[in-house]
Amino acid sequence: MSGKTVRAARTGVRRAVREVPGPCAHWNDEDADFIREILDLVGDKWSVLIIGSLERGPTRYSDLADLIPGISQRMLTLTLKQLQRNGLVTRTAYPEVPPRVEYALTELGTSLLSTVLALAAWSADRHGEIRRHQQAFDADTASPS
User: Fold this and answer.
1) I need a labelling partner for 95 at 20 to 30 A (CA). Which of 6, 22, 78, 134 fits?
2) pLDDT digits (tens, 9 = 90+) for 6-65
3) What are residue 93's phi and psi, to 5 degrees?
4) DSSP label at 101?
5) CB 7 within 8 A of CB 37
């Protein structure tokens, strides 16, 4: 399914709801759809890790791959392209042998950095507590064998 098809399927979701309570009440349908699209991007685990990894400045593709355990080359490439498309990351290719490509946060990407780092810190600080809740939930909902 293409990105255009996915966006079209998500557009106008709020129109089906008679009244929207909470924070979504502040935005019209077009804004709410766009906010959801951006949150899908920046809330993605790979995007968060890439943005956090670019904190120290321009970074080579291979170094990014090393900094983010578990990311495949395909996911790194796709996520970088999406971050680039949305103006959060720049790509600079240097005409050298061997070729060198660096990625860096744009001003817009840098404005998101503190939020991303805070989210990552929150996750790390509460790792043990969240795991305990997951294990308790899983034990309570396990089906009898």
Assistant:
1) 78
2) 555 555 555 554 455 666 677 777 777 777 777 777 778 899 999 999 999 999 999 999
3) -105, 130
4) E
5) yes
